[in-house]
Amino acid sequence: MLSAAQFLTVLDLWVVNIALPALQHEFAPASLSDVSWILDVYAIVLAALLLPAGRAADRIGRRTCFLTGLVVFGVASLGCSLAPDLPGLIAFRVLQAAGAAMLMPTSLGLALSVFPAHQRGSAVGVWAGVGALAAGSGPVLGGLLVESSWRWIFLINVPVILAALAAGAVVLPRPGGQRAGRRRGERGMRGGQRTGWRIDSLGTVLVLGAVGLVCTGLIEAPGWPSGRTGLVVAAGLVLAIAFVFHIRRHPEPLVSPRLFAARRFSAGAIGLVTYYTGFAAMLLGTTLLLTVEWRFPVLRAAACIAPGPITAGVISPFSGRLWARFGVPGTVVTGAVLFAAAGAWPLATASRVPAYAAVVLPSMLLWGVANALIQPALFASADAAPRAQLASGSAVLSMGRQLGSAVGVAVLVAVLGDRPARDLAGFDRAWIVVLVTATMTAAAGLAAGRRVDRVSQPAAAKTAPEADPARLPAVRRAP
Predict the structure, then answer these.
(1) What angle do CA 66, 161, 48 make, to 5 degrees?
(2) Which of 35, 102, 155, 282 is buried deepest, with most CB atoms within 10 A?
(3) Does a structural domain hold residue 413?
(4) First to last CA, the chain
């Protein structure tokens, strides 16, 4: 059930990739920049709302937030399927992202809270593998559904949501014990009573503004003067800096700066941003290469992408054993090398003449193995967060994924412009983005520490179910 929610929220970020040409035709005369907002508004809003959603889940209960998120996501999916025009579809995608923001951190937080420390690597591997399968299979499933109508890519969510709601209401643990644990260990107690808590509204606005402005500037760059693009991107970066200062001074910040005191956690967050920037550019670039440059039918293009997610889905559940044996740095660096090779291969071999077996297939297989090594190892850094902040820590890591996804799509749209079929130069730049981000991901992996077993034991002590909640503030102050 938790994996089903993870699958849907990630799937709906990527399922639209393969449908972009159909949506551009449906809403003509919409440009590539116009329809790309269907992708990016979901990623931007999701990235901005993950932090307040994770914070709320830790305070009011992960079960409550999870079930509420399912309802919101289901209603929004139905609205997307019935949208009469492009603005209406984009509006429902905003609501869909709000529901996904409640689901992502709570699904990983719930999973980590019920597994013992020695099994969390395997649990995160399965959870991340489901996300990888959803991200890579989005174009595949989208291609199958678009053959009938693009509306089915959203409508198909509704029965899955209903089934997950029914299962969640029965099997998810009730929040009573969770709240009791939090009351004993939380700060902010007055006279033995729990003080009120409010969402950090200013922090939420700063995150939304920072991500939105940067991505808007990149997406609209092909049609804007360079001065306007630079001004909008610079404004987004200023808001990002303001957010950092804000959370350092706010008594109840959107995300606690203490989370980033652990090097493994910070490295995992940075690595997810860089990896997903490259992955987003690679997946959308490959989709457009197949459908626009080589003029493959949608269903054939979807089948061409399938080997990547299949490979990632098969290997990811075993990745926990790999990084437990070889360490997070070695696993991530190996994955980054394979990811760089996945980008370098089409950079060296792609041409106007369709050559799937020689160009795209090797790239997809390399990416599948790379993703299985990189993503679970980086997401496992959530275990370095204190138990009382598992959902918040998971939200930060999920935000890193969504932020990278939004930036990757925006960067690719910027380098391609509104006529991606004009020549192969734009696609070459897409593969270069992959090479750069793979290098940065490897650096983040190296920063995570020497061996996972030397880091995970203190993390397990902080997150073990039997840990005394009253000691959590002291643990969080530890370097």
Answers:
(1) 50
(2) 102
(3) yes
(4) 36
